[in-house]
Amino acid sequence: MFCVSREANTNQKIYIDLSVDGKWLVSGGTDGKVQVWNVEQQTYPTVHMQMGLHKDCVNGVSLHPYRPILATASGQHHAQDPLHHTRHAKVYENALGMWWLGQQQEDNDIITAIIKAATHT
């Protein structure tokens, strides 16, 4: 057994998912990033990949069982301190995302363009 850490300074649930082959563990964090650990390693797992996919808490992650697709959900409740509230609010995000994690191909279709724009590639 092991314990891995992530950025999570909230009292809401932040979900995890494990790939069907048992190799990859994924979870979101309050920093908007999704972290991936290789839990098949013989040593203590370290972060294999970290992806900044959202501007707010990534509270839901789900790996497709047989395609290289990751689904994410973002957003959280932001309580404001009534004594220190200003008109300048932080940018909040409540979104669902579908991310292609496979090989990029040079296709001239709109889906590929959206994926490349979302992943900044």
From TrEMBL:
GO terms for cellular component: Cajal body. Belongs to the TCAB1 family. The keyword Transit peptide does not apply. Gene3D superfamilies: YVTN repeat-like/Quinoprotein amine dehydrogenase. WD repeats lie at residues 16-47. It comes from the Eukaryota. Keywords: Repeat, WD repeat. Pfam families: WD40. GO terms for biological process: Cajal body organization. This is WD repeat-containing protein 79. Transmembrane segments: none annotated. GO terms for molecular function: RNA binding.
